[in-house]
Write a structure and sequence with these properties.
alpha/beta, 2 domains, 3-stranded antiparallel beta sheet, 9 strands, disordered C terminus, Helix-turn-helix domain-containing protein, HTH_ArsR_DNA-bd_dom, ArsR-like_HTH, transcription, Metal_resp_trans_reg
Amino acid sequence: MYFTLEDLLRVTLATEPAPLMELGLATAMLQRPGTDPVLGRWRQRTLRIFPRSARPLLELIPPTGKGPLFLDPLSQGLDEGLDLVRSSSPSFVRADLARLCKAGRPQTWWITRLAHQDRDAWQLLEDAVRSGHASLLAPAWHRIASAFDAEQAWRAHILAQHGIQATLTSLACGIRWAGTVMEIVSPEEREIHLAGRGITLLPSVFWTGRPLVGVYPRGPAVFVYPAITPLTLLPEPSTADPVAVLLGSTRAAVLALLTRERTTTDVARELGISKSSASEHTKALRHARLVVSKREGQAVWHTCTLLGLGLLNQSGAINEATKSPPPLIG
């Protein structure tokens, strides 16, 4: 893969999981028996419940994961992704499907009708995507998003501490650099010239194969690589408030209250705790850089930092922060 200076300046981390990309990779993994024991039980269980309405995806997406590019755009949700799929240019769709069949997928009547923009064929595709998403992704989306956040934080740390070269070579085994050319060990001979478009790094909790690179007509190329922790090794979601688990229920309530500036007396009164207790909690949060405090006369005012707001936002608690938490004691 050939990088220009402009490409190196445009290496970015995806901001969130891509639902259609994950759906395609999950569909590919369903067709790879014995390739990864970590996903073996998931594959057996999923094949038993995989809905008939989603099975057309098996025609389009091969076990290699190199399915149609028009079917896996980066998007912020299923509906937006489907809008992008439907807006793909007919020439791009035809060329993409021709590439797919040339690589070994059977040219079925349905694929032919897709290439000719048949309305019923495209409706069948949308139904298959929605059904596959509901079966494969929706039940696990909380875990997928949590794994993505952890992966993003880790890669951002590597990028900040060690730079772009170390970040890219750490994505998978068999990646090395020769000048501004990144080489990936693969049985496939392929040259990719980024030509200034840049590249977005996207982890997948389903994919365990070699990295995949998608070069789209517009926008940056996408480099898909296996996340550090695959889906089957992720813990089941907890109903507990993660901020409360981390900080304790009272301190989490204090932090949520401080999305608006309040005094120590305000905190004590609104949460039904003593002023000394409120002072201890705000002090601990200040030392953790989650709140900042300032004194005005006899009063000390406290408010969340960006770090504190980010913590609340990631947990979903930010949506409740404008409401006054109930007193913690009667």
